[in-house]
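Database export, one record per block. Field names are fixed; values are copied verbatim from the stored entry.
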Amino acid sequence: MAIASINPATGELLEEFDALTDAEVESRLATAARVAVEYRGTDVAQRAHGLRSAADILDAEVDTLAGTMTAEMGKTLSASKAEIAKCAKGLRFYADHGADFLADEAADAGAVGASRAFHRYQPLGVVLAVMPWNFPLWQVIRFAAPSLMAGNVGLLKHASNVPRTALYLEDLFTRAGLPKGAFQTLLVSSSQIEAILQDSRVAAATLTGSEGAGRAVGRTAGEALKKVVLELGGSDPFVVLPSADLEKAAQTATTARCQNNGQSCIAAKRFIVHQDVYDDFIAKFVARMGEQKVGDPTDESTAVGPLATEQGRQDVIDLVDDAVAKGAEVLLGGTVPDGPGWFYPPTVIAGITEEMDLYAEEVFGPVAAVYKAADLDEAVRLANVTRFGLGSNVWTTDPDEIERCIDDFEAGQVFVNGMTTSYPELAFGGVKDSGHGRELTRHGMHEFCNLKTVWVG
């Protein structure tokens, strides 16, 4: 895939970039290795100052940067601005809490016959991040903020369709006062990743992306005996039970399915509704989905912009068409609009069966698959039927049902009466084919630290 910025609302090519040569990659790796030795010795207060400075720059440049993000991947301007604000918050969170997260942890010295015993967190060195386009700033910051605060240095291989945002990120940390080379963007093709990860100067890697990309990076990291964190796809269940506030649930379901133009790994995608409230909920849900305005992402009244790539839209079209051909019922949408750009309307589809691709595959667009469950047991079974296990939602006021879903949902996250989202204060990650490892909180920082045991006689 060419490294190019293309406006998905118009199909217009904005700018093309040449991939780095092998010699240029070697130079970047040498710089990263050299700076890693320097940067690990910096004081945590110095690192925190750099993160706060980066947050201040984001605040000051929100309008310009939002325009870049919207032009590159089609999210609405309001969504771009919200993402930038979230990144500034994430940077400040680690600046404020990083020292505590990295503090030595005392162990029971007497139990092990020592005068002192403790655990110390130290940086691993150079960490390679392979990141996707759907949240082109936040996906990177949620890796970069804890890693840089821990004293690691970063190499970013961003998605090929968001090169302007990728280059901005390198410039951001340099202008924020971090040592030049502490965070570098590598404009490289996917075929160059394997050699970079195999390089002995790279200590670990993190990837957010497809299952295929995760398997490839995980395989290479495993062969090289390197730590890797993988956040892959999701097909999150949104379970609605009889005691739920149906109006609020329908409103939240619409936001959950249409946020970021339907392109979010933790977006609710499968709506599993108890038969006692199925008709009422679906009527409310379809009505709200139908109210979402599709159009120019720079228009403040637009709720759903274009999908980020032409192939991405085709993938959505194929999944819906396959389901319809095999007997599914389209309750709303399902038709590609005329005109330029890669738009797809909010769509609700029922009657999904196992032979349909939509039953098992993640749909990365504003398409909601709805299921009717006879009881809680069937709802839990349907929630867990996919190979994914990233996020999950349940709507109920029954304490026993809440505890049942918390225990039995096969997912890295359970949100009760609310929409799955990410916060610096909550650990983020999945199970099954949604990957392994965690981001955010102290856990995300510790993923790329050497937990060193110290025993003093």
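Remark 1: The CA atoms of residues 221 and 438 lie 17 Å apart.
Remark 2: Residues 3-232+434-456 form a domain with the Aldehyde Dehydrogenase; Chain A, domain 1 fold (CATH 3.40.605.10).
End of record.
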